[in-house]
Amino acid sequence: AQSVSQHNHHVILSEAASLELGCNYSYGGTVNLFWYVQYPGQHLQLLLKYFSGDPLVKGIKGFEAEFIKSKFSFNLRKPSVQWSDTAEYFCAVNPGTYKYIFGTGTRLKVLA
Amino acid sequence: KAGVTQTPRYLIKTRGQQVTLSCSPISGHRSVSWYQQTPGQGLQFLFEYFSETQRNKGNFPGRFSGRQFSNSRSEMNVSTLELGDSALYLCASSPVAGGNYEQYFGPGTRLTVT
What we know:
Chain A has about 110 residues and is an all-beta fold.
């Protein structure tokens, strides 16, 4: 079955530290990839997406992600986190069907 | 443009009852998806509707059902509620169906089953 794995369930960082959140998916064909973020008390919102082209995509608030097809991965990165990045982050995959598959999420806490 | 709206925002029901949740997509969006969000499980896909037709369904029992109206508004119904149905139910809309568009999420309906 198609699935998305986010290996880090909880991450605690100090401000200015670098961030990398892992995302791996199981699907052999073409996929569309997304990272969503849920700030405390707010709606889920899109951070970035990859459909095709340059495998390094840039999103809002300084986030970026790299699609590595051979590793079935789409890891999220940010060079220097801020306290305001405290949130829950979800990786999602859509293999071009009417169904998005989400990972279980990573809770990030940034210490001021 | 107004965002996705969901009503009610909070709901408390008892086991065995049924519940109906409502979702109004962004104007012009024709695809509506429903998810169940629980701690540790992330978002579990329930179903997606496009042009009043269910295009895909997740692995949930038949107690979970939904429909979409001609104005793209959608409802989901859960019958014979169980304690395990307590969750945040999210609705998301996109312009068309399929995976080439981001989804826009509503605030969710927090359902508590006692």
